[in-house]
Amino acid sequence: MVLQGVNQALQRGDVSGVKQGIQEALAQNMEPRTILYDGLLSAMETVGVKFKNNEVFVPEVLIAARAMNAGMELLKPKLVETGVESIGSVVLGTVRGDLHDIGKNLVRMMLEGAGLTVYDLGVDVSAEKFVAAIEEHNPDIVGLSALLTTTMGEMKGVIEAIEAAGLRDRVKIMVGGAPVTSKFAQDIGADLYAKDAAEASFAAKKFLQ
Ligand code: B1M
After folding, report:
1. pTM, to two decimals
2. Domain containing 66: what range?
3. Looking at the structure, do residues 56 and 134 belong to the same domain, yes or no?
4. Over the Cα atoms of the chain, what is R_g?
5. Total structural domains in the chain?
6. Hey, how many other C-beta atoms are within 10 angstroms of the C-beta on 169?
7. pLDDT tens digits for the chain (209 residues)?
8. Whose alpha carbon is nearest atom 57 of ligand 1?
9. Which of ligand 1's atoms lies nearest the C-alpha of 149?
10. Model pLDDT, residue 19
11. CATH number reported for the structural domain that contains residue 96 in this entry
12. Are 33 and 86 spatial neighbours (Cβ–Cβ below 8 Å)?
């Protein structure tokens, strides 16, 4: 019952409702993992499906994601205590020359909502920075975002740099962004393409399962 409240509050983007629900659930000695999966992640998944079906739009997703982050802040110390592991990790960034990050941030939130750890490198990220981040974090997936037709080509450069560093078989590469198509993804040798943030989290989860 209390988790249903958390779930509904998250979908509404109600930060204090989410926090209050989590505190109640913890006071009832509920497992942090149960609160995470049945309260937060399932709600975020519903938001993702609604977003995919055009039932909710970018502002609602951002508001829900903010509530998700507030809930996660409360829950994280308990999860660490009880040893809940993330299901995988992603190094994510907008490629060199490109400053657009609204879509990339949505992708990050949906990935985090799906239980992945995300190392967000920000915008205008060079191929060298992606390579260094792979060496540092050893992620399962590298996510590249581009919004400009003039920066899409950078994605190929990143893939080539990853190959040159001998890291290509250690990671799957996911690409996305408004001008990116699945054909383009295939042509540059990416492994995964996602049209939007919800698809990105579905594709990542599917790959990790
Ligand atoms: Co820019 N801009 N912009 N801009 N901007 C576009 C992209 C543009 C289409 C506008 C237009 O002309 N109609 C156009 C690109 C044209 C082209 O290349 N074909 C353009 C241009 C030209 C420019 C400048 C060059 C303008 C100028 O200065 N002359 C300049 C470039 C700066 C640079 O990057 N070097 C520029 C600057 C800016 C702002 C800074 C003002 C601002 C960015 C603010 C920010 O991001 N912090 C901005 C904005 C806001 C836009 C528009 C209006 C909106 C983009 C957006 O946030 N959409 C955009 C026009 C438009 O798209 N309608 C435009 C909402 C967001 C949720 O969607 O980013 O597509 P989107 O992300 C989606 C999917 O693409 C996907 O999932 C997301 C969520 O569903 N996705 C992934 C994204 N990354 C993914 C990664 C994945 C998987 C899926 O896997 C890893």
Report:
1. 0.84
2. 2-81
3. no
4. 18
5. 2
6. 8
7. 899 999 999 999 999 999 999 999 999 999 988 998 899 988 988 998 898 899 999 899 889 988 988 998 898 788 767 766 788 999 999 999 999 988 898 888 888 878 899 999 999 999 999 999 999 999 999 999 999 999 999 999 999 999 999 999 999 999 999 999 999 999 999 999 999 888 998 999 999 88
8. 102
9. 18
10. 97
11. 3.40.50.280
12. no
Q: Is the distance from the beta carbon of residue 205 to the nearest atom of ligand 1 less than 6 Å? A: no
Instruction: Look at residue 147 in the predicted model and tell me its pLDDT.
Output: 96
Q: Is the CB of 48 under 6 A from ligand 1?
A: no
Q: In 3D, which of 123, 122, 146, 121 has the Cα closest to residue 134?
A: 121
Tokens of 180: 């990116």
Helices (DSSP H) in the chain: which residue ranges? 2-12, 15-27, 32-34, 42-52, 58-82, 102-113, 127-137, 152-164, 182-187, 197-208
Rounded distance between C-alpha atoms, residue 193 and residue 200, angstroms: 8
113 lines ligand 1 (CB under 6 A): no
Structural tokens at position 91: 């190094």
Per-residue model confidence (pLDDT) at position 109: 80
The last residue of one of the domains, among 81, 105, 140, is 81
Would the CB of 111 count as within 6 Å of ligand 1? no
**What is the Cα–Cα distance from 108 to 189, expressed in whole angstroms?**
22
